[in-house]
Amino acid sequence: MILETLIIVIYTIAILLIFMYALAQLNLLYNYLSSKKTIDDCETFDLSKPNEIPYVTIQLPVYNEMYVMERLLDNIALLDYPKNKLEIQVLDDSTDETVASTREQIEKLQSTGLDIKHITRVDRSGFKAGALKEGLKIAKGDFIAIFDADFLPQKSWLKRTILYFKDPEIGVVQTRWGHINRNYSILTKIQAFALDAHFTLEQVGRNSKGHFINFNGTAGIWRKECIIDAGNWEGDTLTEDLDLSYRAQLKNWKFKYLENVETPAELPVVISAARSQQFRWNKGGAENFRKMLWRVIKSKNISTKTKIHGLLHLLNSTMFLNVFIVAILSIPMLYIKNEYAHLRFYFYFMSFFVMSTIIFFICYWFMYKQIYGSGFKKFFGYIGMFFTFFSIAMGFSLHNSIAVLEGHMGKRSEFVRTPKFNISTIRDSWKGNKYLRKKLSPHVIIEGILMLYFGFGLYSAFVVGDQGGDFGLFPFHLMLFVGFGYVFFKSLSSKV
To answer: I need a labelling partner for 237 at 20 to 30 A (CA). Which of 104, 111, 131, 179 fits?
Structure first.
């Protein structure tokens, strides 16, 4: 009975934590909808006056980007901004032949009058954070725009974003990510779905009420003074962008989020690339929770509500661990429920997971219709997309839980760049990409075993108890079976 009680307690705590997170998302939805009724009265620079045009440095941190480097530089060169107020730094940490080809392309762009520099380092200490910090030492601009190698800002991007820095309290302007290969595959569709929720519901919901948001590592601009005041870039977490964002906001710098400015980028099309990106983001989130927890709690200049939203924001990735715990324990719970009638009261807690799912379903619908439009046909398409996303997200829960646990325990690991592909249509192929990891993760084998485990959960629904089975958890186990099966087989096929 001790084991059964322990299972019930852990299961209940995990479900309640997920429910709390769902309630926070519901509050963000309320904030998001409320923000649509407000008028943006932020003062802006008048860019028609030469004396009001700020000097901008664009930083392009790159590392072995053979497939997208030429596209990146050609695109950045097209930005519509006075050349006498623009500097471009290519922060190149590459270790392959792209160093030479990048230098050659930069020299061609320099001949057009563009102020563009090729900056290399002897070692990659600090990884991306180290490269950004190194470039900042010699940056001419008072404002620092940052783009990762797979981003393609539109010509008017700088003029649509830099003008908000007339307010001296604004330290960062962040734009919404777009997806040039959203419809390439199921994998890219569910990645786009998750990112769209973050860049609409969450970023607007938090920013509109003055809660903490994060610079997303790219497609945004920093005020140089803000970076320095917040302590500069630090490479002690895998998400240096989240780290600096919190340090800046704890120093009372304001962040401006622009939902209406979309910056297109490429989503990973191979599951191994998506896995490495997810691992970095989720581990980095947990690392930042450890780093920022007491700073947020002890801060005297932020409200209690902002502190709660901030801590839940930093615990975003930890929700994967809670989902994984609920998933693993759900099958023992199914048997306990049908074995001990006097414990049935505790199983009402299961309804909190259903309620959480309904809340997520409602919140994400508002995001979905903002991007795709509304109507019955769109809604039915949304239902399919939501449950596909939910299933595959749960299929990633083991992988992401390991990342979260490493982050909370302080285990250090190398910053692994997400390989880029230069793929936007179904006719493009990712096979032959030299940056793909060839070694199969041992976690994949466990994911295959978990697929079978949840297959057993589906079978259990028919045989437990003496009343002809119990199908209450059948939909949950079906999504887990599909999710882990997708991740398992997709991971195997990506090595072929």
So the answer is: 179
The angle, 0 to 180 degrees and rounded to 10, between the axes of the packed helices 271-298 and 186-197 is: 10
For tokens 């497939």, name the residue: 67
Identity of the amino acid at 402? I
Q: Tell me, what DSSP letter sits at residue 429? A: -
The reported pLDDT for the residue numbered 496 is 43
CB atoms near residue 249 (< 10 Å): 26
Dihedral pair phi/psi, residue 483, rounded to 5°: -65, -50
DSSP state of 151: B
The single-letter DSSP state of residue 301 is S
Q: How far is CA 311 from the centre of its chain?
A: 16
Of the candidates 105, 18, 28, the residue with the CA atom closest to the CA atom of residue 62:
105
Asked if the model's pLDDT at residue 138 lies above 90, the reply is yes
pTM attached to this predicted model: 0.93
* Cβ 39 vs Cβ 126: under 8 Å: no
Determine the Cα–Cα distance for residues 295 and 311; give it in Å rounded to an integer. Answer: 11
**C-beta of residue 109 within 8 angstroms of C-beta of residue 77:** yes
Residues catalogued as catalytic: 93, 241
Contact 227, 143 (CB under 8 A): no
